[in-house]
Amino acid sequence: MKKSDRTREFILSRCAPVFNQKGYVGTSLADLESATGLTKGCIYGLFQTKEALAVECFEYARALIHERMDCEAREKNNSIDKLRAIFDMWRTFPDYWPIKGGCPILNTSIEADDTNPLLQARVVKALETWRRFFSSIITKGIRSGEIKPDANPHVIATLFIALLEGATMMSKAYNDSASLGIVLDKIDEMIYQIKKQ
Question: pTM score > 0.85 for this model?
Answer without folding.
Answer: yes
